[in-house]
Amino acid sequence: MGIYDFHKKIDRQHTASVKWGLNHAIFGTNDVLPMWVADMDFQPPQEVTNALKNRLDHGIYGYTYVPDHVSQAVQSWVNKRHNWEIHPSWLLYSPGVVPSIGIAIQALTAPGDKVMLQSPVYTPFFNMIEKNERVVVNSPLILKDNRYEIDFEDFEEKLKEGVKLFILCNPHNPSGRAWNATELTKMAELCIQYNCYILSDEIHSDLMYKPNKHVPIASLDEKFTDHVITCIAPSKTFNLAGLQASAVIIANKELRDLFQNIQNKLGFFSLNTFGIIGMEAAYTHGEVWLEELLMYLRENVEIATNFIEKELPTLSVMEPDGTYLLWLDCRKLGLSDEELKEQLIKKGKLALEPGPKYGPGGEGFVRMNIGCTRETLMDGLERLKKAFT
């Protein structure tokens, strides 16, 4: 038995939870179990809650700045968990990774410039490129033996078209695939060759299942370090998305100044008080909690995979290297994406993320969030079975 109880079910209704409070607005009914958006149903480490309570008890919530000891906590975490020595001066802060992507696009490209991604991939990558009046260039991933691979020939051909910025998702969302050092090195070398900067979204980097390891692309070579903007956050790791706090690692001072200049233009000066407190407490005291969480999540993955193999053999689960997301291949059912969605909602009473949201290659897939109690997981799996039998 561990210290923490991840079996504890907590009612999240009436907390303005996107996951639990917007079922009717998003899925047209309240009568569904939400296993879609990527937040967990677990309380964070008690040390985080205690730190927030202590700050709350102080009673004054004036303007705040991010103190040096917070940057030191981030630095220590990245070094210990990912074997990457960063300097505190490389750190900037942002309310979230998606705002950081938007800022990086504005800082490193101009309207009409080409920005590359690899679909299927996290939906806001597309949104941030398009909303900032840049051009989406897609180098699709290759699905081989139920696992994604990079099409390096296509990757290079797309770079030759004059791509200014490449947005990397590592670990990959929605599949949970962790790119290895060889793959990352090849991508980075090609980007440098064709004068393309890299923004690496590494928000799921702490959620890796042993023996898999996360490799920050910027850590592999000094010449890469100067060419990459890396985004991390405690939000997925410790279920703190509502605190709106993330860190941006930029070793190259010129890039850092460009990024910060856009922040200044937008009137951003610091994180909110509780985001600062929560981030420091999580990165300082959260490691034991995280190790226990990963064991629980790994069991959830195994339970879900075994259930689907036995009860729904027409579906296949892509084995994740990390994250609490399962990418389910439903193509053998022979249903359209609209039919998949309708059967899930109307027959199974289950709310999952539809694959087409992740761009070309997502058709026929759905994404399932298993960052929940065992009771909720089993409920969801039975609903999945009901939807498709």
Your description of this structure?
The chain is of the alpha/beta class and 389 residues long. The protein folds into 2 domains: 18-45 and 287-388, Alpha-Beta Complex (Aspartate Aminotransferase, domain 1), CATH 3.90.1150.10; 61-285, 3-Layer(aba) Sandwich (Aspartate Aminotransferase, domain 2), CATH 3.40.640. Helix content is 42%, strand content 15%. A 7-stranded mixed beta sheet has the order 2-10-9-8-7-3-4, with helices on both faces. The chain has a 4-stranded antiparallel beta sheet with strand order 11-12-15-14, with helices on one face. β8 (197-201), α9 and β9 form a beta-alpha-beta unit. α3 packs antiparallel against α12 (273-285), α5 (97-108) runs parallel beside α6 (123-131) and α13 runs parallel beside α15. The longest helix has 25 residues, at 287-311. The radius of gyration is 21 Å and the shape is globular. The chain starts with 17 loop residues before the first helix and ends with a helix. The model has no long low-confidence stretch (mean pLDDT 97).
End-to-end C-alpha gap: 37 Å
Count of strand segments: 15
| CATH level-1 class of the largest domain | Alpha Beta
Order of helices and strands: HHEHHEHEHEEEHEHEHEHEHHHEEHEEEH
Measured by DSSP, the beta-strand proportion falls in 5-15%
Q: What is the domain tally? A: 2
CATH architecture of the largest domain: 3-Layer(aba) Sandwich
Rounded average pLDDT? 97
- CATH superfamily (homologous) name of the largest domain: Type I PLP-dependent aspartate aminotransferase-like (Major domain)
Main β-sheet, spatial strand arrangement: 2-10-9-8-7-3-4
Structural class: alpha/beta
Work out the helix count: 15
| Poorly predicted tracts of residues | none
